Amino acid sequence: MAGLISLRKVVCPPVPEKLNVGSMEQYSQTVSENIAEENLRTVSELFFITTNILSEIIDAKDAYTEGHSERVRLFSVEIGRELGLSEKELAALSLAAKLHDIGKVKIKDSILKKSSGLTPEERSEIERHSIYSEDLLGRHPMIESVTEAIRSHHEFLDGNGYPDKLKGDAISELAKIISVADVFDALTSLRVYRESNYTDEEALELIARGKGTKFDGRITDILQELYDNGIIDYCRGIYNLYKFPSKALRMFNSSLNRYKGDDIDKVYLMIGLIENILWNPAKAIKILKNGARIHGEYYNRIRTEIAFSEYYMGRLNALYENYQWFLKHSDRISNLDLMRAYFGALIYFWKTRELDEAIHIIELLDTMFYNSKTDKELLNSDTLLIAIERKREIFNDIIMLQAKGYSIMGDIMYDLGEYSQSIRYHNNSISIKSIRGDLKGRAMSLLGSAKAFLKMGRTKDAKIRAVNSYRTNAEREDKYGMFLTSLVLVQIYLEEGNFANAHNYLNMADELKAHSKKKGDLYRYYVVKWLYELETEESSNIVQEIEEILSRDDINEFIEAECYYCLGWACEETDPAVSSKNYRKALKLFEKIKKVPEISMVKKRMTHLPVPESQ
């Protein structure tokens, strides 16, 4: 699968069969247009990613302002929509809000993070940050409205702002919008120079007092309306979606209680999405169905999220049925909605072990990532900002699909015994998830790569990845993630012969197994426990325990195969013939579900059996 910026081959038209001056001129013109279009598309991608990185740099520089730029962008765009700004103006506003504080990278930490009062000289330096921002971005005509808004976002209507002491209409409308959004988020966020933040109501009241002197009255009124209607909380929910899902859920529920827009189905969608992230699929289905009844703009995405909810509850076929429905109606469905349905199909084919079909879906998704629209408008530089903003609108969805696709490909390569490829795909997934702040997803991809390193015999690398995964899960209090990682750490330490640490993590897994979300994961605990006991010869009840699990109706073929493998090992010394029989059962099942690492594991273990005497 390609990266965030692919090295795409420029598609050229076929060379005319009859070479004449006219046909060759037309051919050359078409080739030139294709190359120009491709170059401009690449420039837009580079510019988009660079601006995102720049805003992340300033957030990383000061922990107290983390996320500030993105929240200001979200608030500003909503205000701009209410003001009726054009698509081009909204695009410029979005970029300006995202980068409004980038000049702070040039200010010393001793000033930027100072908790006591600033000296006049330090205050003057702080007030130069908007000038520094403009200098960093340059003065290209294409982004003139952006840099003007950034430079002036601290100007006040009465002329008492900075850096140019502009008054009234001399301040651009975009700057006036960012000014209000900036102050609101600053007041309601923790800052190093004050003990506590303002409540939303206190911040709104304070801003209202500056109406007509500091701030544009229309804009302050719109901010109040957006807050009253739940849209500000919706924006906060979007910001926290993957970083802090529980906080995002509170924001979306608060928004839902007050939301008055016709597009309320998007709030239902977000609540359902979060409930799935928090592993509450039954709750997700209930809320998502409320959103589906509206049959609005987000119907198709809600439909797919319902299918994922049903999958999380154990109905794998829901993903395939959803995929088939989208194929049937593909002529009236957006490419992005199709991609989500295709991703569901990828999981279906992966889980049903139709790996050729899964890889085919990955190839289709890869093509769709870069052909969602033909960016002809990029040939006109006046619309480049619009193209960049459209990219921003789908960027999170696209790269999260990419990250999850990489992770699944990593698991597929692992199952096929291609461990280096598995690590490469998981590393790609880790990189993207790290950029987007998806720490939970990053921890899972770290765990996937740890398993591949373990199979390669690189236990040191496996341990580093697994411990990193465990710590991330522990920091986020994700006990399910801690449980899964503990199981892998047991196997790593068993491979090293460090039975004390293996025992410690086995105890942790025992304490955490109540947080297992799937039956298969719970059964994996027992398999790992048996492997530990077989390796250390610490139990005499393994055969009885394994036979009890094998008698259950809810085990899948993978767990069944692992049970037979452990049973074979347990019977090696007492009854080699029974041991061999169980190994053969395990081998047959592993071959059926295409698990190359486990096939090799069984064959290696079978070498411990005595060679039968010849007849």
**What is the count of DSSP helices, taking H or I runs of 4+ residues?**
29
The CATH superfamily of one domain turns out to be Hypothetical protein af1432
Report the average pLDDT across residues.
86
Broad CATH class of one domain: Mainly Alpha
CATH topology of one domain: Hypothetical protein af1432
Residue share in helices? 55-70%
User: For the CA atoms, what is the radius of gyration?
Assistant: 29 Å
In terms of DSSP E residues, the strand content is under 5%
Main sheet? none
Termini separation: 55 Å
**Record field, number of beta strands:** 0
Summing up helix and strand content along with how strands pair, one would put the structural category as mainly alpha
Could you say what the CATH architecture of one domain is?
A: Orthogonal Bundle
The poorly predicted ranges are 1-13, 372-381
Morphology: elongated
H/E element sequence = HHHHHHHHHHHHHHHHHHHHHHHHHHHHH
Structure in words:
The protein is mainly alpha-helical and 615 residues long. Among the domains are: 62-228, Orthogonal Bundle (Hypothetical protein af1432); 242-315, Alpha Horseshoe (Serine Threonine Protein Phosphatase 5, Tetratricopeptide repeat), CATH 1.25.40; 438-517, Serine Threonine Protein Phosphatase 5, Tetratricopeptide repeat (Alpha Horseshoe); 538-615. The chain is built from 29 helices and no strands. The radius of gyration is 29 Å and the shape is elongated. The model is unreliable at 1-13 and 372-381 (pLDDT under 50).
Please give a quick description of this structure.
This protein is mainly α. The protein is 69% helix and 0% strand.
